[in-house]
Amino acid sequence: MSGRAGRCPAPLEAFMRASLVLAFLLLLTPIMGSAATATIIHTLQATEGQGPGSAPILYKGNLYGTTEGGVQGSGNIYRLYPKKDGSYAFVDLYEFNGTSDGKSPYGAIAMDPSGNLYGIALIGGTYGGGTAWELIRPANLADPWTFQVIWNFSPNAINGLVFNSGSLFGATNYTLFQLSPVGDSSWQYQDIAGLQVGTNSLPFFANPSTAYIASSTHLYQLSQNQFSGWDLTALALIDSTPTSPVDVTGTMLRNPGGTFYGISSSGGGFNGGTIFKTYQDTSGTWNTTVLRSFDPATETYRPEHSLLYAKGKYYGILYSNLGEVFQAYSSATSKQWTVNDLLDVNNASFGRYYTALTSDSTGSLYGASGTGGDTSQCGGNGCGVIWKITP
Fold it and tell me: Is 80 helix (H, G, I), strand (E, B) or coil?
């Protein structure tokens, strides 16, 4: 046989080469109208999980997160680590059984200084109201991680957990709570304040004894008292005028000057949601200023999850068309902040239903989608993807 035996005809070879180039470009997608680049770093398979339930968090170059699927269909906890070739490897750290340990892990994952992970499952457990769990990091990451349920809820916990000074803090639909370790493996639960928090809202700790949290209408301060309990004080009414933010969502951010930044899923000049700031003026009066109103008639709207601050700009998720990642910053020429679209559902390979965001020290963003990826799996919608955006 000649040396040409087995080679594709020239037109077919050219077509295959073009297809490979197109496939690569789908994974490394420059966003039109900005200098940002979005990259899929892992495509979930059905056995790895379906529909990420949390934003991935970063620790020593590894990404950790949860999904609501997995081998047993009840959710799992995963680790993604970078390989030498630049791709990421997926490790299934724990599979929920859907009964005693809970089902459907969801919301913010907390991490302590040793790299141990904490989170909630929405249902299951002893009382059916879900669980709080701990996943203990081994000295050698190749070894198994140790899982334990640290609390069984009734009623259900929501939104996830945050770590502060050795304890975990979170919310049910009616209260804020604190979980504190007692001895080697036991935990103690304490209701610390009666409050119906905003969607996806968790305490933001300015220091170990002072935190801030939002309801759908107010900003509150939590202060630790001399009895090791917590006092709740209402600081500001956010929803105070017809064009104010309505339905505040997520954890509000506080800058060193004491100004708070947040988002609402509705309200504002067009009732499509807002980016806003709440601050105390020189007279001591609290004020709220809308920095950006989203217009349902002309753009994607309805902010969800929480704002993220990285390298001088703010980032978040819009949900009206099932997913958009935006960048926002103040404008010298307009009272309204400038908003750029960094990723949206028009990039079909990235899927829909985006999680909240996290960032690394360079300002790159990480998130996940509840669909997308391999459309031969998970009912033809794909099981979801984990992605990175370099603004």
Answer: strand
